[in-house]
């Protein structure tokens, strides 16, 4: 089973009308003390927050920054690397402050990169001509500097070189502040009949319900319990007619787990998932193109996270309960009989009893990187 490592960013607060930004501060030809860096960051953040502009959580930013530096084998200070970081944390803008030490002053060169519009807003150059260790003077300067940064709405704009796809690739799946991060290994394919059979043969998993007339199947417009057609049992198609407990058991056998509904929703609602017929035809089996049957996993293109069939083909079991009553489990992603309009819905999920057995339910597994 192949898998892909995905950074997940979740939030407890949604700000539908407010911008989320990433703040990068770098001293060019001298070492900025931790105290000075903290004062500068604190002052900028305070003014941004007062104006309802929200900074991405610093722990998230630093983790992704470190990851990008390791991948590139060099420090992540150039615009292209910072843009990649901004994309990964789903920011709308990047505020970049480079501080250079002169003979008797400090020069603050600040630029704002708009990730959605694909432009660089060259904002301002500020000169601090006092002792940078004078906390009071530095605080007054940062207050003035930040206020002008926020109020300056007419920055000259220049196109970012070699960044033609910024707008296309950086829209956030959620318009919210990110406050939690983790690395998650996600199976890039739904679990197939062939893979599930290995667990059955090992004596760990219960056989899928293909021959006991207990699987709910559509016959015309009516949903009845019967054996699914043989075409659903192809070894390369997603396993179906398994309930939540069977799916959970298989993932445990793989030393993995079922994903939560939030984890699945994040992967489903990637930045390109808009109501676009061409796009859905490329990545998803749904009511318009499936002929109302499942299809071999990976037959369509992956979504922008490299995950196959996360939209359509089969609904996928999650480990999450619908609510505190703990009666219904959440399933995510839609199936071969789901209409395109529902696949595009931000609330692309359904609910059922954990013992439900139907030929439109399947699953995939995940594993956290510890």
Report on this model:
The protein has helices at 34-50, 58-72, 79-88, 135-151, 166-169, 193-201, 244-253, 261-268, 277-283, 340-343; strands spanning 3-10, 13-14, 19-27, 53-55, 93-101, 106-114, 119-128, 157-159, 176-177, 180-187, 215-219, 222-226, 315-321, 329-332, 349-352, 361-362, 366-368. The chain is α+β, with helices and mostly antiparallel strands and 370 residues long. The strands form five sheets. A six-stranded mixed beta sheet has the order 4-3-5-6-7-8, sandwiched between helices. It is built from ten helices and 17 strands. The protein has two domains: 17-174, Rossmann fold (3-Layer(aba) Sandwich), CATH 3.40.50; 183-368, paralog of FGE (formylglycine-generating enzyme), CATH 3.90.1580.10. The model is unreliable at 6-17, 150-181 and 271-275 (pLDDT under 50). It is elongated. Strand 6 and strand 7 form a beta hairpin.
């Amino acid at each position: 089973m192949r898998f892909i490592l995905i950074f997940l960013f979740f939030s407890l607060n949604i700000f539908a009308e407010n911008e989320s930004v990433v703040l990068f501060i770098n001293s060019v030809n001298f070492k900025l003390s931790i105290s000075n860096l903290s004062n500068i960051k604190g002052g900028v953040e305070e003014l941004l927050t007062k104006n309802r502009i929200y900074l991405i959580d610093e722990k998230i930013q630093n983790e992704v920054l470190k990851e990008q530096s390791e991948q590139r084998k060099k420090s992540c200070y150039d615009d292209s690397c910072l843009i990649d970081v901004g994309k990964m944390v789903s920011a709308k803008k990047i505020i970049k402050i480079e501080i250079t030490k002169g003979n008797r002053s400090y020069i603050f060169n600040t630029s704002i990169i708009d990730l959605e519009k694909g432009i660089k807003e060259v904002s301002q150059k500020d000169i601090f001509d006092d002792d940078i260790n004078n906390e009071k003077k530095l605080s007054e300067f940062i207050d003035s500097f930040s206020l002008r940064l926020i109020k300056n709405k007419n920055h000259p704009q220049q196109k970012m070189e070699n960044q033609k796809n910024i707008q296309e690739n950086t829209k956030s799946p959620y318009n919210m502040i990110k406050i939690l991060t983790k690395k998650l290994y996600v199976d890039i394919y739904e679990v197939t009949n062939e893979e599930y059979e290995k667990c059955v043969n090992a004596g760990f998993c219960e056989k899928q319900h293909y021959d006991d007339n207990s699987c709910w199947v559509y016959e015309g417009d009516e949903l009845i319990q019967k054996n699914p057609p043989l075409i659903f049992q192809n070894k390369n198609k997603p396993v179906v007619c398994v309930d939540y407990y069977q799916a959970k058991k298989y993932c445990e056998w793989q030393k993995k787990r079922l994903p939560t509904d939030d984890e699945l929703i994040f992967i489903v609602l990637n930045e390109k998932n808009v109501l676009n017929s061409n796009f859905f035809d490329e990545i998803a089996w749904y009511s318009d193109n499936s002929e109302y049957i499942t299809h071999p996993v990976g037959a369509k293109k992956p979504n922008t996270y490299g995950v196959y069939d996360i939209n359509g083909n089969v609904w996928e079991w999650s480990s999450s309960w619908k609510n505190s009553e703990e009666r219904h489990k959440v399933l995510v992603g839609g199936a071969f009989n789901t209409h395109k309009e529902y696949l595009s819905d931000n609330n692309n999920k359904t609910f059922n009893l954990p013992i439900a057995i139907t030929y439109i339910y399947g699953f995939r597994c995940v594993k956290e990187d510890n």
